[in-house]
C-alpha cells in the first residue's frame, strides 16, 4: 500500500467579511507526499503546485482517513470516518459498499446555503456495477447540481476516454487526455453554466496527474518551466492547474474570493 499524506492549502482570501467565498477542491491521485517541489522533490517539476503553496498554508502533518482511495474520498465529503459513512474499502470492482444516500456531505449543505455545486472527474464512491444507476446514489444525490464523472479510471485509457458520464447521460468518446478534459469541463461550467451572481463550490478530482511513457515532458517544456529534463521521471501535467487557476482568478473575476484546497491521494 502506498503511503498516503493529505495536504491542504488556502491560496486566496475572502474579499470582504460579509462575502461568501467560492470553494475549489482539487483532488489528485498517485502523488506521494514527496512528489512535489513544495514538499522537497528535486526531480519532479511542479511549478504550479509550488506557486499555490507559496500563496497559502502548507500542512505537514495533515493525514487522510484511510490509506486507499475510496474511503479517503468519502471522508473528505462527509467529515466522517469510512466505517461510519459506508465506504470501508476501495471500490474498483463489485462490492456492496458505497457512500450511503443518508450521508450528509458538504456540497449538500452548501447547496442549501445558496451555493451552486459542481463535480468533475473521478467519483469512485460506489462500485462499478452501481455507478450511474438509479438504485444507488450518484454525485447528484450528494449535493452536486452539475457533474461529469467516471467511476474510476478513464477508459479505455486516459487518452480519448469514452466512459465519462454527464448528469447521468453517457458522454461518448472525447478527444484529449482525461485530466485536461476534466479541467476543460470545469472551465465550461464556470463560463457558461453557473450563475455568476451566486457563490460556487467546485470539486475537481483527477485520476491521471502524471505523464506516462506516451506523454513525457519535452526539453522545450522543461526549459520553459525553469527545470531540467531527466529520463524516466514522472512529472505532473503542467497545463491542468495553470489553465484552471488562471481562469478562476482572471477571467471569472472571482479570484479574490476563492478558497483552494489541494489534496493528494494514493
Q: What can you see in these coordinates?
A:
By secondary structure, the chain is an alpha/beta fold. The protein has a single domain (22-264), classed as Alkaline Phosphatase, subunit A (3-Layer(aba) Sandwich). It is 24% helix and 14% strand. It is built from seven helices and seven strands, in the order E-H-H-H-H-E-E-E-E-H-E-H-H-E. It has helices spanning 47-54, 69-78, 82-85, 106-112, 178-193, 219-224, 239-251, and strands at residues 22-28, 116-122, 146-150, 165-166, 169-170, 200-206, 258-264. The chain has a seven-stranded mixed sheet, with helices on both faces. The longest helix has 16 residues, at 178-193. It is globular, with a radius of gyration of 18 Å. 42% of the residues are buried. The model is unreliable at 1-18 and 210-239 (pLDDT under 50).
Pick out its properties.
266 residues; Alkaline Phosphatase, subunit A; 7 helices
Detail the topology: elements first, then pairings.
Blueprint: E1 22-28, H1 47-54, H2 69-78, H3 82-85, H4 106-112, E2 116-122, E3 146-150, E4 165-166, E5 169-170, H5 178-193, E6 200-206, H6 219-224, H7 239-251, E7 258-264
Parallel strand pairs: 1-6, 1-7, 2-3, 2-6
Antiparallel strand pairs: 3-4, 4-5
Would you kindly provide a brief summary of this structure?
The chain has helices at residues 47-54, 69-78, 82-85, 106-112, 178-193, 219-224, 239-251, and strands spanning 22-28, 116-122, 146-150, 165-166, 169-170, 200-206, 258-264.
Amino acid at each position: 500500500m502506498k503511503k498516503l499524506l493529505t495536504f491542504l492549502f488556502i491560496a486566496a482570501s475572502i474579499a470582504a467579511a460579509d462575502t461568501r467565498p467560492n470553494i475549489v477542491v482539487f483532488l489528485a491521485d498517485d502523488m506521494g507526499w514527496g512528489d512535489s517541489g513544495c514538499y522537497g522533490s528535486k526531480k519532479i517539476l511542479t511549478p504550479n503546485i509550488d506557486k499555490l503553496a507559496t500563496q497559502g498554508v502548507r500542512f505537514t502533518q495533515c493525514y487522510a482517513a484511510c490509506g486507499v482511495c475510496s474511503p479517503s474520498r468519502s471522508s473528505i465529503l462527509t467529515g466522517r470516518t469510512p466505517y461510519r459513512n459506508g465506504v470501508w474499502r476501495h471500490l474498483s470492482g463489485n462490492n456492496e459498499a458505497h457512500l450511503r444516500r443518508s450521508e450528509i456531505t458538504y456540497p449538500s449543505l452548501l447547496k442549501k446555503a445558496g451555493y451552486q455545486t459542481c463535480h468533475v472527474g473521478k467519483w469512485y464512491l460506489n462500485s462499478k456495477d452501481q455507478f450511474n444507476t438509479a438504485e444507488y446514489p450518484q454525485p447528484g444525490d450528494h449535493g452536486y447540481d452539475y457533474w461529469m464523472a467516471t467511476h474510476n479510471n478513464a477508459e479505455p485509457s486516459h487518452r480519448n476516454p469514452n466512459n465519462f458520464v454527464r448528469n447521468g447521460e453517457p458522454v461518448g468518446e472525447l478527444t484529449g487526455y482525461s485530466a485536461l478534459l476534466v479541467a476543460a469541463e470545469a472551465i465550461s461550467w464556470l463560463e457558461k453554466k453557473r450563475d455568476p451572481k451566486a457563490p460556487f463550490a467546485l470539486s475537481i478530482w483527477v485520476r491521471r496527474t502524471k505523464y506516462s511513457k506516451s506523454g513525457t515532458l519535452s526539453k522545450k517544456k522543461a526549459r520553459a518551466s525553469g527545470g531540467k529534463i531527466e529520463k524516466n521521471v514522472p512529472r505532473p501535467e503542467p497545463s491542468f492547474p495553470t489553465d484552471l487557476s488562471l481562469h478562476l482568478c482572471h477571467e471569472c473575476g472571482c479570484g479574490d474570493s476563492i478558497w483552494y484546497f489541494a489534496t493528494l491521494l494514493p
